[in-house]
């Protein structure tokens, strides 16, 4: 399978990313369906500043990364590759050769979707094209005065609010009916969702994540989640997304030692871990992290 490494990212994009001010970095990094030279495929971009090499791995190369080496974009620490022929639904990881001599398979920090646990691969997904019907809500939101209007927030965990059985969850679309209707009937103005970003452990509340741009696959697809939000808005409910920017899980496929060295976490061992939680602490002094 022929690969192309021509970068679509401008110097200004890279500058903003390293400055910590690229507010649309999710459009720059991650996996995106794209057509190059009339050939459809997927563009991959990942930040691994100290990596010796980075490859895209999946079923299409027996998870070896063979023939799919990414190109380092100058001294930026960003790596890029366009792979023709890959489609939405492709499962992949990055095979990262660390400075410590170890090659690790890592899920994509900027992926929009992931495999259903216990599998841990990232999934190519196109978040474009959803038909939103919340124009009335968005227009009313501009005139909403939270200091003068009633505010009543229902904090809820989607995985435990209602279950069909052990680890048998209701879907985003089912919750769009049951949970949204319940919240409206109870007089709430907003739903505050405990973290739905992808995370490895069902028993957690979702605060220890592996990726912050993917709503968990436990309840459906990203567009299923969009439907949930869209219907909440249709019923007059605001949706607040809970998440914690302080720490993340230490699972091998996640952010810890991403390129074989402390990348997202502090290098200082005294700051690196949150002992009580068994997690790694984000190094918020790094612009690329914060």
How would you describe this protein?
This protein has 290 residues and is an alpha+beta fold. The chain has seven helices and 17 strands. Strands 3, 6, 7, 8 and 9 form a five-stranded antiparallel beta sheet that branches. It has a four-stranded antiparallel beta sheet with strand order 1-2-5-4. A three-stranded parallel beta sheet has the order 10-13-14. A hairpin with a 7-residue loop joins strand 8 and strand 9.
- The proportion of residues in beta strands is 15-25%
How much is the average pLDDT? 92
Report the radius of gyration as a whole number of Å. Answer: 20 Å
Query: What structural class do helix, strand and pairing data support?
Result: alpha+beta
The N- to C-terminal Cα distance equals: 36 Å
Oligomer: single chain
What is the strand and helix layout of this fold?
Layout (H helix, E strand, L loop, with lengths): L10 H9 L5 H4 L1 E7 L2 E9 L5 E6 L12 E2 L5 E7 L6 E7 L5 E4 L6 E2 L7 E2 L11 H9 L9 E4 L1 H4 L1 E3 L2 E2 L2 H14 L4 E4 L28 H13 L3 E4 L5 E2 L20 H4 E2 L4 E3 L9
Parallel strand pairs: 10-13, 13-14
Antiparallel strand pairs: 1-2, 2-5, 3-6, 4-5, 6-7, 6-9, 8-9, 11-12, 15-17, 16-17
Kindly summarize this structure in a few lines.
With 290 residues, the protein is an alpha+beta fold. Helices cover 20% and strands 24% of the residues. β4 and β5 form a beta hairpin.
List keywords for this structure.
five-stranded antiparallel beta sheet; 7 helices; alpha+beta; 24% strand; 20% helix; four-stranded antiparallel beta sheet; 290 residues; 17 strands
